[in-house]
Amino acid sequence: MELGYTLFAQGDLDLAVRSLRRAIQLDPANATAHYRLGVALCEQGKVADCIECYRRAILLKPNSESALMNRAFSMNYDAGSKPAEIFEAHRAWGALHPPRESIGRTYGNDRDPKRRLRIGYVSGDFCDHAANYYFEPLLARHNHREFEVFCYSSLAESAEDEITARTKAHADRWISICHLGDQAAADRIHDDRIDVLIDLGGYTTRSRLAVFAWRPAPVQATWLGYANTSGLTAMDYRITDDIVDPKGTDHYNSEALFRVRAPYLCYRPFPNAPSVCAPPVLKAGHVTFGSFNNLPKLTPEVIGLWARLLRLIPDSRLVIKTVQMRDGPTADGVRAQFASHGIQADRIDLLPWRVWTVHHLARYGLIDIALDPFPYTGVTTTCEALWMGVPVVSLRGDRPTSRVGASLLSAVGLPDLVAEDHESYLRAATGLAHDLTRLKELRSGLRERMQASPLCDEAGFARVMERAYRRMWQVWCNVKTDQTVVIPSRALPAAAGRG
Fold first, then answer.
1. pTM for this structure?
2. The domain 105-266+458-479: what is its CATH number?
3. Contact 235, 220 (CB under 8 A)
4. Is 105-266+458-479 in the same CATH topology as 2-75?
5. Can you give the C-alpha Rg of the chain in angstroms?
6. What are the backbone dihedrals phi and psi of residue 395, each rounded to the nearest 5 degrees, phi first?
7. How far is Cα 98 from Cα 483, in angstroms, rounded to an integer?
8. H/E segment holding residue 275
9. What is the pLDDT of residues 284-342, one digit of tens each?
């Protein structure tokens, strides 16, 4: 089993899977082996198989926190998982972390609804991580006269970098909690008298979501890192918008949904991004589609639809760029899936991830049209594509993670590229492919369009979020009869930023 784990860490996915399967043959009751096999299979894009591995691990070890969390996360990729099932999977993880009411938490926070508030952000990604394309513009634009900003970092100090340094400079207070357990971290946050505490990680790596079960702050919300419920009954709000979470979807969340203006985030582009180039179709004579999303998002349904698109436009090509393409057998598996739909390998370019962001962004010069996967759409890949002048076709689906693309495209004035089903997805993609005039216009104007849109309005978005925090605080001030922790009701608050 340890050999399989080592091979996985080195990126040898196929060998890791083989080793872990052998470990399970030798010890079928080893829950950790089933869990690690699930992680490796997910990295290969075999989502249904990975969910089954997590299920087996949970049967063997019902309180396996990692297996429960990864199962819930992976179900976002799976078209066969229904919203109610995804919600129950998140609740199963959340059940491991009920509100720790036995500690008798009380708050010394002044209940003045208009005073300067202490806002705390909890994350393990205050470094060179995609989350900072969205968090840094908010942090840099905070009104420090009205809000005192604390950053609680679970990032190992050895992993800190220049972005960490910028984050420290923007924050009023920086506190490392990487060496603290959940209760100790919660005690520290409570002692700092934080008024509104924001989780930035959700179910992603280095998240400290379990800290929130200890209710260190009177108001707690999750935002940014994960577009789905926390599963925690101790979490008061999830900040979203009415495209990602339209009316009628609230019951799939353990928190109240606090809807701000769409999109629910703000994007700060990489400052040294290459200049936008002409659409490659003008020189190549054929349209090139592309996707730079993580491989688990490229499910059999996605590959099947993309293969249909390639058949509809016989001379077109497809570029897939993702870190897993470093593993030869995994790349061969992707080619084999397309071949099963009649698409030959010479029409597919599989590229590994590039280390430097500027090189990664330059790769968008290879494609004319970006294809958003489903039911888990891109976020940063969509923003990057648009910034590099590449239009994106997205499919709106039945869960929050399948509607982020719709929110982003609507924000930049391209709602016609948001499809409601497979057929309209194909129509949108083929329509773009046959309209070279529009491709050229979009290529030359998308960057300016983004700059003028809500997606890149840093100052405006900071005010939206600050109004949201103020409203959450006012609700707490109004509903409290004393300063002992009480789990708030799930009444939907008024939306922020609508005027």
1. 0.94
2. 3.40.50.11380
3. yes
4. no
5. 23
6. -115, 115
7. 20
8. none
9. 999 999 999 999 999 999 999 999 999 999 999 999 999 999 999 999 999 999 999 99
